[in-house]
């Protein structure tokens, strides 16, 4: 980022390449709109570029960029609340594959793919149901980009509060997903 501050476009391009997917993943998992995730990610990098001359090394770059991403995502959530509208580009819940995905390194047989897809949908639904701070803390934790200290800075709370948010999010998910995870075998929930 210090090279970007000095006007190095190649350094900026490498930052974009390195952080583009993690930023889009964080935004997508919060908004569930791939087009919006791309737009906000672009705004994040525009903000980074515009603010390069003011950048000071007070924290890790990843902390800074995820803070920008979180703030722009929260602004979008507020905007949607004030001016609700259906996006023509947004994917519907019935779509089989979201446009933006976290890389899946596992390969499953056809029947297992169906079950795995159903489970992923339940997990994403449960994550979407978490309170905003718990969801953001959990998603940042899943990205493995930031330490707990850096996550606390992004969230604007103490280290212990951040750990508590992640713990509460995991406990909530455990309770919500319990009917689907008995002995590692997929089963339909019996009227949870």
Give an account of the 3D structure.
- With 192 residues, the chain is mostly helical.
- It is 65% helix and 0% strand.
- The protein folds into 2 domains: 1-83, RNA polymerase sigma factor, region 2, helix turn helix motif (Rna Polymerase Sigma Factor, Chain: A, Orthogonal Bundle); 110-192, Winged helix-like DNA-binding domain superfamily/Winged helix DNA-binding domain (Arc Repressor Mutant, subunit A), CATH 1.10.10.10.
- Helix 5 crosses helix 8 (159-177) and helix 7 crosses helix 8.
- Mean pLDDT is 77; it is low at 87-108 and 185-192.
Q: Could you give a short description of this structure?
A:
This protein is mainly α.
Sequence-ordered SSE layout with sheet pairings:
Elements: H1 2-5, H2 9-31, H3 34-50, H4 61-82, H5 110-128, H6 132-143, H7 148-155, H8 159-177
Helix pairs in contact: 2-3, 2-4, 2-6, 3-4, 4-7, 5-8, 6-7, 6-8, 7-8
For the structure shown, list the relevant keywords.
192 residues, mainly alpha, Rna Polymerase Sigma Factor, Chain: A, Arc Repressor Mutant, subunit A, 2 domains, 65% helix, 0% strand, disordered C terminus
C-alpha Rg (nearest Å):
18 Å
- Low-confidence blocks of residues: 87-108, 185-192
* CATH homology group of the largest domain: RNA polymerase sigma factor, region 2, helix turn helix motif
- Do you know the CATH topology of the largest domain? Rna Polymerase Sigma Factor, Chain: A
How many helices? The count is 8
Query: What oligomeric arrangement do these chains adopt?
Result: single chain
Provide the β-strand percentage band. under 5%
> How many strands?
0
- Residue-averaged pLDDT, rounded? 77
Sheet with most strands: none
Number of structural domains? 2
